[in-house]
From TrEMBL:
It comes from the Bacteria. This is Triosephosphate isomerase. HAMAP family: TIM_B. It catalyses: D-glyceraldehyde 3-phosphate = dihydroxyacetone phosphate. GO terms for biological process: gluconeogenesis; glyceraldehyde-3-phosphate biosynthetic process; glycerol catabolic process; glycolytic process.
């Protein structure tokens, strides 16, 4: 059985007090409601250690939003996998489309980041997804396959048991436009086929593949009901307690 996961990517939102308030309220909700889904929050890095201490890891896991491609050294502003591991962190989002777009992250850099994550037993949430013009040109399958293979062929096969994938079509992020459940299911099934063809049936069956892109309390039920969608990576709606707990509850 694959893990059901709902992860909230807070991006560069919330001040210190707001972050603590949201995280502690979520922790209490998960403790009371015992949802099926594993709940993960990915706050800005400045709050990682505080939030790791503020929540109970039995209920909520904390993830970084990025990881350095380098082991250590003169990389101002970067945070290494070893540093994240040293505060007890187990998850990292890698290759988010906003980092690909604004920080120039390439598939080669992303492959290096994954290697660092695996080296320190951090479970990476690898983000893939096409841009609007790529979907319109019907290149979305090729784009996603290339992103997956470029990131994954360089990894040790045994490390892939830690992998989580998030399919996030760029045109659906923060736009209010969601992929239809059928569109999302189609590409999630395709991702599983690529995993099966390249890395074997076990990786294909065991890797949780999350959908991201304007998931909200209204559409989560239908999206999470698709057979190859194992949960969500949620941006805007993860900042609102009432919405996010409804989304967690929708992941059955
Ligand atoms: O980028 C996302 C999560 O990583 C999705 O963001 P939204 O849910 O705000 O569209």
């Amino acid at each position: 059985m694959r893990d059901r996961i709902v992860a909230g990517n807070w991006k560069m939102n919330l001040n210190y007090e707001e972050a603590i308030h949201l995280a502690t309220n979520l922790n209490a909700w998960v403790a009371d409601n015992q949802p099926i889904a594993q709940v993960i929050i990915a706050p800005p890095s400045i709050y990682l250690q505080t939030l790791l201490e503020a929540v109970d890891e039995q209920y909520i896991k904390v993830s970084s939003q990025d990881i350095s491609a380098h082991e250590k050294g003169a990389y101002t502003g970067d945070i290494s996998a070893e540093q994240l591991d040293s505060i007890g962190l187990d998850f990292a989002i890698i290759g988010h489309s906003e980092r690909r777009e604004y920080q120039g992250e390439t598939d080669i850099i992303i492959a290096e980041k994954l290697k660092q994550a695996f080296k320190y037993q951090i479970n990476p949430i690898l983000c893939v997804g096409e841009k609007l013009e790529e979907r319109e040109a019907e290149k979305h399958f090729d784009v996603v396959k290339t992103q997956l293979l470029d990131a994954l062929v360089a990894q040790k096969p045994e490390d892939l048991s830690r992998l989580i994938i998030a399919y996030e079509p760029v045109w659906a992020i923060g736009t209010g436009k969601t992929a239809t459940p059928e569109q999302a299911q189609e590409i999630h099934a395709f991702i599983r086929k690529v995993l099966n063809d390249e890395f074997g049936v076990e990786v294909a069956n065991d890797t949780s593949v999350l959908y991201g892109g304007s998931v909200n309390a209204q559409n989560a039920d239908e999206i999470f009901a698709q057979p190859d969608i194992d949960g969500g990576l949620v941006g805007g709606a993860s900042l609102k307690y009432d919405d996010f707990v409804q989304i967690i509850a929708a992941c059955k």
